[in-house]
Please model this.
Amino acid sequence: MSAPVIEASSLGRWYGEVIGLSDLEVSFEPGITGLLGPNGAGKSTFMRLVVGELKPSRGSLRVLGHVPFANRELYPRLGFAPQQDALYDEMSGLGFVRHLLRLSGYSRSEATRLATRAMERVDLADAMHRPCKGYSKGMRQRTRLAQAIAHDPDLLVLDEPLTGLDPVARRQAIDLFRELADEGKSLVLSSHVLHEVESGHGQHRSAAPGTAPGPGHGGGHPPRTLAPSPRTAGVQPDQPRQLAVACSNPKPCGASFRR
Amino acid sequence: MMAPSSCAPTTWTPCSPTFPGSSNAQPGIRSLQSSDADLGWYSTSSCNDPAYLIMLFLRQTLLLAAHHSKQLLRSRRMLLCLVLVILVGLLYTLAARHSAPMRAFTPISIVLVLPVLAPLVGLILGTSVMAEEVESKTLTYLFTRPLHRGSLFLGRWFACAWIAGLLLGGLAAYIGFEAESMNAVATKNPAPPGLALRFMAVAATGAILFTAIAATLSALLRRPIIYGLGYAFVLEGLIGNLPGSTQRFSLQFYLRSALIDTDGEAFQRMRFLQELGLIEAGPAFLRLGMALAVLLGIGLLVVRRKQYLLSS
Model:
């Protein structure tokens, strides 16, 4: 069995009084890993911890064997496409990717070559000289993807990479993910949609808000495991106060009840 | 720029001796062997030569400074600063038309340029250092590169500093040379020789100092412009104008000291300047330089350690 690319132990992250992640124990092996969960489940928080943008409030996290926060030894091997729609709008797509490559230490000519190759890979060769402010949502998404893959990283962390893409572009992106995995890269991508993650033929992990995700594997769980419409479950306990106290405990509710 | 030959990695191994993706650990993963050195890639971790690391730091700083300069020169912030500078220049031209050079110069420099315009321009430009990247949420891209966070702060500050220094220095040069050129026609209260150069240096220093204050605030706080304005106009305004030695805790005191030649004939005639208890120009410049170094040091420390929350 190969060593894990990401290892988290008792990982927790709070934003003031809000719990972003609680007691996460995961170990991701090389390959494609999808993170599934509703809004607020902590997928983006986990990814921001993985790319070293945030520090854990508790627990430990190692990415490719490194503690990720502000770790310059890790970043050459890591590509991150964030969820937020942010680019330098006055720059062209090619200029944007090239600028980031140059900051990573590439010469001007090499940065141009690698940026062009990355833009071609995400099918933006025709538009790469246009300013980003004129890009559609899908083009912006693909530019974010291009800057993540341009420096040929070992681990790609992609936060909702299929959002905003039309069906054809979505198909192309999924093919690209498979291609990257075939090249030996590890990918961690988040989504709300199970079958999108499964179509990448990777392992997936589903997460309830702020808790440890459960494992699964692509192909083994058909999309019908998701309810066709939202469902609401009501709880009428005999001792509501004790339930409230138990749920306010920072440990997961289930553990408190068992106790 | 290619890496120096002694520092160019030929294998991936030095950076990741235990990573499962290396060719010896997992055959299916593409290895980064000597052919990849052709990519021009070099890792900051692959070479511990201090000279090389310093060069890399400087290169990244200059790249960031050039990029931020371009951004600033096309921004609304720049337009606002230009309008303010032109307005003050016009004001001086009108004021100096029918008076002795020093009669217009003194209030414009000591009352308007140093305590009002320098902080305004410095704050308007300097708050863009970190706050702009946080607001536009593009900071993520920079923080996930093998980039020293210090170079990010210094590079972006440097862009603000040279633009602010040039704007204020240019205005001061115009005002100073106008005042000096009137010496020929003025019979009393002439401008002291070298006034233009000194005013240029002091105004530029003041603007650069306030960009450093704004940059540090932008690294620390979410709304740096509000805190910066509070500092520049409430705290500095109060402390800088108190009688006695309290005013030595304000930057304005040292800016005034650096500008006013206490031995010079022109300034000696202005009794109120003599009552300010100013120090000599040399020590004043030295203390301003020390303040700049401390401010940048705090900013660097904050940026290196702080977690910036970019909500999506």
Notes: Chain B has a mean pLDDT of 78. Chain B is about 65% helix and 0% strand.
